Amino acid sequence: MFFGCENLSFKYGNVEVLKNVNLEIEKGEFIGLVGYNGSGKSTLLKVMSGILQPYSGNVYFKDKTLDEKNRIKIGYIFQNPENQIIGVTVEEDVAFGLENIGVPREEMIDRINWALSIVNLKGLEHADPNTLSGGQKQRLAIASILVMEPEVILMDEPTSMLDPKGRNEIYNVIKKLIKMGETIIIASHQPSDLEEVNRIIALDKGEIIFDGLKDEFYSKNIIDVELPFKTKLEKELHFRFQKLVDELCQ
Ligand code: ADP
C-alpha cells in the first residue's frame, strides 16, 4: 500500500472520534475529505501524518507502518498558517525543517529556491512573515512543507481563513502540485477547493460513509454540501441539453 490506514481508531480521552477507518490511497491521487464540522476530518489527517498519537490500528506508508523515521515523508498543512510559521524571515522559515535534519548549506539553498518558486514567493526571501497577506502566509506554510520533499501532502482546510484572492493563490499552487504528481488529501468545506479532486472520502461521526468518485458523491446527495462550480455548471448544462433534446424530439 502506498499510503493508508487499517482499522484506525482514535480517542480524545474517552471519546472515540475515529472509528475503524480503512483507506487505501495510491500515489498521485488528489482526494477531497468532506464531512460536517466535528466529523473527524482534522483528527484523521493529524493521525495519518503522525502528529496525533496514540491510536489503535495502523497507518501505512509504502507498505511500512508509520514511524518516527518515515513520517517525515507525510506533510501536514494546518488550517491556520500562523500555527506553522516560526521563522523571522520567509527564508528562515522554509530553512527550519532542513536545518533540523542537517541538510548541507548548498543543497539547502537550492531546495529553498525551488520551494519558494513553486508557491510564487520568490523575491520575498527576506520579508518578515508577519507582513505577508493570508494567502502568502499559507503559501509560505506550503513551501516549508514542500522543501522537506514529502511524498504525501495532507491539507486541513487550507483556504478556510483566506479571502477569494488568497484562495485562488492556493488553488494555483495545488494545480501545480497535482501536475507534479504529488499525492494530496484536502479536507474542506469550500466547494471550490474540490473542483479538481477525483475521489471523495466523506466522514460522519468518525466513520467513512462514502469513498468513491466525485461525480457519484455529488449525484447521491450523501451529505449536504454545496456543489463545486464546475459540477454545478455540468449538471445545469446537462439538464438544459436534455430539455432541448426532448423539445426537438417531440
Ligand atoms: P472536523 O475536522 O471534521 O471538524 P475534528 O477532527 O476537529 O473534526 O473533531 C472531531 C471530534 O473531536 C469533534 O467532536 C471535536 O469536538 C473533537 N475534538 C477535536 N479536537 C479535540 C481535542 N483536542 N480534545 C478533545 N476533543 C477534540
Automatic annotation (TrEMBL):
It comes from the Bacteria. Its EC number is 3.6.3.-. It is found in: Cell membrane. One of its GO terms (molecular function) is ATPase-coupled transmembrane transporter activity. Residues 3-230 form the ABC transporter domain. The keyword Ubl conjugation does not apply. Its main location: membrane. It holds the Pfam family ABC_tran. Keywords: ATP-binding, Cell membrane, Hydrolase, Membrane, Nucleotide-binding, Translocase, Transport. The keyword ATP-binding applies. One of its GO terms (cellular component) is ATP-binding cassette (ABC) transporter complex. It is an enzyme of class 3 (hydrolase). CDD domains: ABC_cobalt_CbiO_domain1. Belongs to the ABC transporter superfamily. PANTHER family: ENERGY-COUPLING FACTOR TRANSPORTER ATP-BINDING PROTEIN ECFA1 (PTHR43553:SF24), HEAVY METAL TRANSPORTER (PTHR43553). This is Energy-coupling factor transporter ATP-binding protein. It comes from Defluviitoga tunisiensis.
